[in-house]
Amino acid sequence: MMVSVDVPVSRRRRRERLSSCRLCAPGGRAVAVWAAACHRLPLFFPLFTRAHRPNEMVEPAARGGPAAAAAAAASPAASPAQTADEDLVLAALSRRPLIDADVAAACPSLSKQTRLAAINRLLESGRMQLLRRPSDNAILYKAVARNETAHLAGLSVQDRLVYAEVEKAKAAGTWTKELRIRCGLTIAAVKKSLANLEARKLIKSVNNVQYKNRKMYMLVGVEPAQAVTGGPWYTDDKEFDIEFIRVLYNQVQEFLKSRPHQMASVAAVERYLADLKISVEPLRTPHVHTLLNVMELDAIVESVSPSRAELADEGAPGAPPGGEEDPEAARARTTYYRVNKQVVSVLAVANTPCGVCPVVRDCHPDGIISPRTCIYIDEWLNF
Predict the structure, then answer these.
(1) Tens of pLDDT along 334-361?
(2) What is the CA radius of gyration of the chain?
(3) Whole-angstrom Cα distance, residue 337 to residue 356?
(4) CA angle, 123 then 127 then 130, to 5°
(5) DSSP character for 154?
(6) Which helix (H) or strand (E) is 304 found in, with range?
(7) How far apart are CA 122 and CA 340, in angstroms?
(8) Domains contained in the chain, CATH given
(9) Taxonomically, which superkingdom (predicted)?
(10) Is the Cβ–Cβ distance between 185 and 136 less than 8 Å?
(11) Phi, psi (rounded to 5 degrees) for 215
């Protein structure tokens, strides 16, 4: 049975204790119950009083990692001596992120209490970030430039940690499970931080075409990667747009047939599709190159190496003068495709409805079931 002991303390002494405690002082984050636990019932809450005593700065990693550091109260304006301590810590982190032991070795003139106080102030002001080292899950301190923290003002350390991981993911994005593992937080804490960051319009959520029930989070100004959105080949509902692909197939074939040698470069096909304006999202060189590669796998077109005479008739543009050409642009300028004439007839026969007709054995020219009266063949021929 646990017994609580009320230690008699004078009112003046109790007021001095409350004013000296960072949590219980006016403007702090503790409520009256916490104040009573801190200063009137030390035997009832021994763990709490050891974890947070008046005028004592506790290392965030020792009290549960980055998430616990968010509970620290805002410190008052730093004195010149405190500013000098912060500058010394930031100088140690100028080259690369460090663990606390390395920071202590780089700042031998600072005591542990002074160093941790400077670290807490830097975390609260946003001049420092907490990271997780993947190899051993150790906490790293990373310095942040002053001009990079203006948009993060008012965020807790936990929110800043989640923001740093989302920023690290870039265009590929990240999701809640990855953030939970990398930040060492609970799933509820991650969702709360993501909601706060979305409300501040610092991050956005994008649906993943490969995993429809998974939301990927990235910074607001970042364009999602094609692996996430699917590029122009998917509809707004993240469904593969078969009709759009079919239209592109037909347009590319007609364009290649209209060329002098029924061939064209990737760059020429890209310009032609851009002039048609049949795509809401612009079809860039990688998109067109992918489209032609798929058409080549479907035996609709084939890649060729044109002769000099054919290149002259095509009016192929040369390399841009001066400077190095982008590798993708160089491939688009030198890779040519033409309609595949050798396999079209074979594909046409293979794609007839007769290949999947359940009564094909009873089909005869003069029978009840006949190719002459088959509506499926008429639809196939009119396509």
Answers:
(1) 788 988 876 544 445 556 778 778 888 8
(2) 34
(3) 32
(4) 50
(5) T
(6) strand 301-304
(7) 66
(8) 11-56 (no CATH), 80-219 (1.10.10.10), 242-318+326-346 (1.10.10), 353-382 (no CATH)
(9) Eukaryota
(10) no
(11) -95, 130
